[in-house]
Amino acid sequence: MKIATWNVNSLTARLQHVLDWLIANPVDVLCLQELKMSDDKFPLDVLQSAGYNAAVFGQRTYNGVAILSLAPIRDIGKNIGGFADDHSRVISATIDTRSGPLRIVNGYFVNGQAPGTEKFAYKMSWLRALRDWLREELAAHPRLTLLGDFNIAPEDRDSFDPVGLAETIHHTTEEREHFKSLLQLGLVDSFRLFEQPEKSYSWWDYRMLGYQKNRGLRIDHILVSETLVPQAKGCVIDRVPRKWDKPSDHAPVILEIDP
DNA sequence: ATGGCACTGGCACAGTGA
């Protein structure tokens, strides 16, 4: 089965891209971020016509996350337990697979603007709360995947300019330590389980011909709990929709696991 | 060093993103 994540930068603006992509890539689960719409605007009927169930946690203008799944979705949770948040950034749910229940945690992590700002401080407290909550989630759901737009380039090789951008947003030691602390919970970056092309990125700036020059960052990730690692068969970034007209600035990431 | 571009709300342009 295939599980994917895609920051669509407005589902209103990108609905046709999502539908076209799902036709070409009929994944079992697609986690979306940056819906930028309230729940009542979510195009549930058209996605159901495409065969998908949906769990939605929307918000007007900013943020907003959803899980699309061919299989029924149950036990939906919203945001980080014990952490009061005005933003709609996390939706979690369980689907049943042949190997047992699979817990899906879909996150749109805080951007953080720049070190030293209030937004960066929010990012740090958000990441701390996420880690503490995930420790419990993992204990309750051993088969778990944490995926989405992390807004963290975990290593130098995940950035087109690790020297010039050293200690700037997405690259700071503090953010990378938080990423490592998620791995220390018993999660694995599935992309790095497999041989990958050099300079593999999942986001490119709209400006300055970022995509054409491959000036990108790998900030969209699919982490899997250690029990799932033997079932992981491949993880790829699909750059195709980034070349379409009026694209999202992010590309989908897809994990294949034994069902 | 700065801006580059895209999106939303709402109808001018500020806020946000990464």
TrEMBL record:
What is the required cofactor set for this protein? Answer: Mn(2+); Mg(2+)
Q: Which GO terms describe its molecular function?
A: double-stranded DNA 3'-5' DNA exonuclease activity
* Species annotation: Variovorax soli
Domain Endonuclease/exonuclease/phosphatase: from-to ranges: 4-250
UniProt cross-references to PANTHER family, sorted A to Z: EXODEOXYRIBONUCLEASE III (PTHR43250)
Domain of life the protein comes from: Bacteria
Q: What is this protein called?
A: Exodeoxyribonuclease-3
The cross-references to SUPFAM superfamilies, in alphabetical order and at most eight, read: DNase I-like
Q: Name one Pfam family in it.
A: Exo_endo_phos
Family assignment from sequence similarity: Belongs to the DNA repair enzymes AP/ExoA family.
EC number assigned by the record: 3.1.11.2
Keywords for this protein: Hydrolase, Magnesium, Metal-binding
NCBIfam families the record matches: exoDNase_III, xth
Under the heading InterPro entries, the entry gives: AP_endonuc_1 (IPR004808), AP_endonuclease_F1_CS (IPR020848), Endo/exonu/phosph_ase_sf (IPR036691), Endo/exonuclease/phosphatase (IPR005135), ExoIII-like (IPR037493)
